[in-house]
Records
---
Amino acid sequence: MPTIKDALDIIGKLTVAEQESLKTMLLSPAFVKSLNIEDFVAKERFANGRVCPLCGCIHVVRNGHRKDGTQRYVCKDCGKSFVIATNSIVSGTRKDLSVWEQYIDCMMNGLSIRKTAVACGIHRNTAFLWRHKILDALQNMAYDVTLDGIIEADETFFAISYKGNHSKSKTFAMPRKAHKRGHSTHIRGLSQEKVCVPCAVNRNGLSISKITNTGRVSTRDLHHIYDGRIKTNSTLVTDKMNSYVRFTNANGIDLVQLKTGKAKKGIYNIQHINSYHSQLKRFMRGFNGVSTKYLNNYLVWNNLVNYAKESDMEKRNIFLTFVLATLKTAKCRDLSNRPAVPLVA
């Protein structure tokens, strides 16, 4: 059976004009519409053989069709039946692949929820739900990111936001008065009104960032975020903070700490992490405020779109192929019932 490498070898032998024609054809709506969403997910999920999306076993056989013609499968190990979209973010969708592709293009271009809804012909509530379905699935890929080489780490802070319509919520109670005017926080410096987001980047375009707690980062927080995700042959470059000393000692990682105001020490500096923080803040400002409930999703979104070194086409393919086919479900009620401030345990 021909492989992707075989196809790439053939494409490499085409003329520039032929490659451009192929690119136009592959990206055309007509080509995308030739695959429905089930066919696309099946192609991605079953690329290496059939696998049960519920238990992960490979003893899967066909099991008839639903009334709408959708192929059903049954797993001989767990005994459960499923369709190809089971346990995916497109489970239950009534839109074809071209709409999801257009939605991902809107995300790549940073369009607002309302503009995305108009462009894709869907309701704004659906557009909001799709955004977080996609970002939830993208979290699965972010969990596998590991950093090596020279790694720069530092923290940034975001004011806690309870943005959203809570009028129909049965579980949420506003813990403070709304900040209707003036500053977003009423206490200067670090406080219980800001969440801490430790961030780490290497020089190959990989990054990790996640909410930990309010106030200054602790060694326990660093273990929660970075344990198993920084290789032992790496060098961590930070500012002068004792939490990193204890963390690196426990994990056998080399540590270089720079004094406040000192930009570099030989080949070591924290310019990449400072640049990352600046880009992250610009990215967040584009949304005119992000609810803390969903902040982790936006962190992952920024990491892929703005920091990763892949081309725009490669990033788009990650959204389309990995996100739509990965094992992940997200329901509307699950989104609304998330903790308002998702701190580490």
---
Amino acid sequence: MKALHFQLYFFIFIFAFVFTVCGCQDSTSVNGGKNDSEVVLRDYLLSEDETWEPEKTYIVQGTFEVLPNVVLEILPGTVVKFGRDAHLNVRGILKIGTPLVFGAFSEPVHLTSNSINPRIGDWHGIQFDHTHDSESFLRGTVIEYATVALDIKTTSPTVADCTFRYNETAVALDGSTAKIQHNAIHDNDIGISTVGRQTRPRIERNNIIKNDTGIFCENVQSIVQNNNFENNNFALKLNVKFDFGIPNNWWGTSVNEVIDKTILDSNDANIITKPLGTVNYEPIAETRFDGAGPRE
């Protein structure tokens, strides 16, 4: 009888241990960081509205997903760090930084790599996943070290007063009428990529500087004006057979021969591998736009 009781207690102990160790694990978890001011989120599904505050540092591991009809708000001054290959997938509404109704933004939000020695492409970036949403915005935000910092698919957020640096692609627009205005876009492989011909995103008053390619264009309906293109390897690469009008921008010079060398289009028959349209960049802005870039 004692042996039977011992076996029963042993079985109960093993069952409880296995349940505690394995049964309580979940694909969605919030784990405490090194201290109370650090929040670690691993493969997290956000199912109700939430606000992230500057008093805490948020570390995202894996996939953080904002579900439909849910709002994630990240207040000015907040720091969010992303682990290797982590990304933020938005199927709801994302509000980052100072609201657009305020005249000037306050402290910037930082979205960056969690690596001690960060590099381009450390984390995947933010993807707006076909939400058809126009309420989302990013303002006064620094985004760096991502593969595609903002991947905007059939969503139309406003992106203003932000800094994009050290990304493979800073902003990718696919089927979007987003407003990309007053941003500093520098030291990326590609500054802005546009695809889809049925929408008209507005790319205005940005400083697009020191990128390998400033704009990679497959959407010739895009409105691109009053920007400063300076010190890019290519200011613009056209990748479709349709012509593209891009007037009233500053190219670092007003000399056509110099500007032509920074644009890839039908005039570059010696290096292109498929038929391309022609970029018409005239009239050229007479001087640099001092009011372009983030407003402080």
---
Amino acid sequence: MMYKFLRPLLFRLDAEHAHLLALYALRGTQYIPPALWLLETICKSPSKPVTAFGLTFKNPVGLAAGYDKDALAVRGLGALGFGHIEVGTVTPMPQGGNPKPRVFRLPEDEAVINRMGFPSRGSAFVRKQLKPSRKISPFEFAFGRGPRRSDVVLGVNLGKNKFTPNEEAVLDYLSLLQDFAPHAGYLAINVSSPNTVGLRALQGRA
């Protein structure tokens, strides 16, 4: 119902701008506890716990990497009922990704083509988002509205910078592992994106 109302408005924007608008709207709920509570109430999902890799997911439906590349709205996304949220792909240093336009709608297929190519604000920025320095208000504390829900498993998707030669990619991945191991329930290494030249060559045997 809500999508039918919002769809014409969002389709007035190009696909990438519509994506960013939704992302920043979710980010905004993180600073308005009543809005966050309302979102959680509307999107409340049944508990169907799944245990895998030593982690317990409150349900088997998660958000894949690519939607929130820089961990801007982890708390807002958590309110939508996901069992896990994977942020990224994160690169060690900031990079801009591919030239625009790079996201294309396929309305008849209800699908989107993504050719973004690892745009990332870099690991230092993302770490800061995952470990907020702001104090939690009494309202947030009373209602459990911390920076991130403890019942939503957080994953971080890791990628090398496009200017890093494949021979040195391991250094990028090691740096990212050290940066995010303390903040994530699991880490995923991205060597499959077709939008980064030469990346899939890393899938071969050493």
---
Amino acid sequence: GYHFYVTRDGQVHAGRPIGQPGAHCRNHNRHSIGICYEGGLDTQGNPKDTRTEPQKAALRKLLSQLKESFPQALVVGHRDLNPMKECPCFDAAREYSDEIN
């Protein structure tokens, strides 16, 4: 259960209410907001950053909006919280370290 899902065309779809714990990252669901983007695999099914430009823009806008409500929040990827995971297939902490983190 994610709180938000971003499709390839940049549309942001709401999932679980933010006040409800997600089911996206074991041991971190109660104190995190889960955002998933469509894609993340190459044509052979291997992990790869496949975000489109509209997805990148939508993710940045969503994260900026969430940061207004949760100013102390850090933006990290699933892989930063669970070494067995590769998603989101890019370094979220570094990519959003400018005005968001």
